Each structure stands twice: as structure tokens, then as C-alpha cells.
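Hi R.,

Here's the chain you asked about this morning:
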Amino acid sequence: MALESSGETTLQAIAKAAGVGQGTLYRHFPTRESLLLEVYEEDFSQLVNAAQGLIDGFRPSVALRRWLDELAVFGRKKRALAEVLEAATREELHSEHYDRILAAIESLLKAGVDGGEIRQDVRADELLPLVSFLWHLDTRQHARIPHLLDIVMDGLTASRPHQQAAPCRDVHHE
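And here is the predicted structure, written out as C-alpha cells:
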């Protein structure tokens, strides 16, 4: 739909694409921002809810990789809506949804650890910032996302021994 391609889409264009009158759309969504926030919430809920279905239907590492693919799609949609979500509302959405997304990631990681496919030392609050690059890639880089996610998955696999990295030191204070 037009919302995915541009954050500038008008309610009139959205109503036309949806096959409803503008009045109908305005009764349910008085502003373009209210419609975009509803779309964001729906997409976010689908992303979070997909975790359990993937765990139930696939090997744990495959489930996690497929969910990361869905996260990438969500990130592209979110980027298209970023203009609207950059305001204070975005901060509310992020803090409100942070625990839900961590819980989804945690369930995927737990299934992988229990299945012996994912490292035991990875936490959800570590994986989320690790894949946050998805929100920062421009459209020219979208073709690289599968490869980048494969690199992330390689780092998560339990098949190789993993050494604890030395703590990072701030070179400016030494």
C-alpha cells in the first residue's frame, strides 16, 4: 500500500486505495498520524505474535532467522513512517513496546538454546541492538539484509566454541 512507500501519503489517497470514502476514513482516523500509528501498532503486534508460530513450526534456529527476516520487513515499513513517528509519540511507542519485543526475542532465543542450536550466553536485550542496523539501512542496502542477518545468525550458533570477549576500554581515558 501507499503507506509503505511514502510517509507523505494523504488520507485522500489512502481512502481511494482502500475503496472507502474520505468521510469514513476520517470518522475512524481524524488525522493521518492516527492512521499511521494504528498501522504501526498492527504491524508491531503481528511481528511480536509471529515468534510463537515460528517456534511451533520450525527448528529453533530457522524460527529465529525467519523472525529476523520479519523484523527486517517491519524495519523498512517503520522507516517509511519515521517522519510521523519521530515525534514524542515515537518515544511512547518504543517504551510501550520494548518489553513486548524483548519477550518475543527471548522466546525465540530460549527455543534455540533448549534445542542446542543457539548460544546460551545471548540475551534478548543484546540481540535487539545487534540487529538495530535494520532501521538504519537506506533502500540501496536492502538487498544486503539477508547476508547481514546470516552473519548475525552465524554469531548466535551454538555449534562453535565462543570465547568471552575482553571488556571494552575507552581509549580516551587511558
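One quick note: The chain has one domain: 2-8+31-158.

Cheers,
M.
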